[in-house]
Amino acid sequence: MSNFTQNLMKDETVVLPAKVSKICLVKDIILCIFFIGFITIWGTIIKICTTELVLTSHRLYGKYGLIKTKTLDTPLNKINNVSVSIGLFGKIFGYGTISVTSSSGIYEYKYIKAPETVRNAILNEIEAFDQRRIQKQAEQMAAAINTRVLPN
User: Fold this and answer.
1) Fold classification of 4-132 (topology level)
2) Were both Cys, which of 16, 47, 65, 80 would link to 69 (CB 3.0–4.6 Å)?
3) DSSP count for the chain of H helices, then E strands
4) Rounded to 5 degrees, what are φ and ψ at 109?
């Protein structure tokens, strides 16, 4: 989590900073031994070092890429879908790809540790965010009704 915590909004807390798995390098190291994966290992290292995904109580923030950076900073109520993709090595070592579809596009975060846990946390926080929003609207409506002066 780089400097994201300095940019939190009022009443916003970090719920879950998703971690990137470094164990995914095992596949590339094995290939590197056979001189096949020497180039691919650098791509994986760059993805690991530049991927960031943080769930807060109000929004989802994510960033990946070194030269071409793609950033997601969306309120939780604008997220349409969260899906997980796990390959063979991901099942063995516990990492996967999280795809987030929001109103602004599709974002894929690779090599995330415990991706099902992260997906479930995002979906649970979306539900809690909606409940808080509805509760706040109900309180505002009740306050407006109570302050309204009724004619005799």
Assistant:
1) PH-domain like (2.30.29)
2) 65
3) 4, 7
4) -115, 110
Q: From the centroid of its chain, how far is CA 37?
A: 29
**Spatial contact of 75 and 61, defined as CB atoms under 8 Å apart:** no
Are β-strands 95-102 and 79-85 bridged in parallel, bridged antiparallel, or unpaired?
A: antiparallel
CB-CB contact of 53 with 61 (8 Å)? yes
pTM of the model: 0.74
Q: Which residues of 110-122 are buried (b: 16+ CB within 10 A; e: fewer)?
A: bbbbbbeebbebb
Q: CA-to-CA distance for 66 and 121, rounded, in angstroms?
A: 27
The one-letter code for the residue type at 118 is: V
Give dist(CA 52, CA 50) in Å, integer: 7
Residues 125 and 57: beta-carbon distance below 8 Å = yes
Q: Which residues pair with 60 in a beta bridge?
A: 55, 74
Q: Give 9-33 pLDDT, tens digit per residue.
A: 777 778 877 777 777 667 666 666 6
- Residue 18: count other Cβ atoms within 10 Å of its Cβ: 23
Q: Give, as one character, the DSSP assignment of residue 10.
A: T
Q: How far apart are CA 3 and CA 48, in angstroms?
A: 17
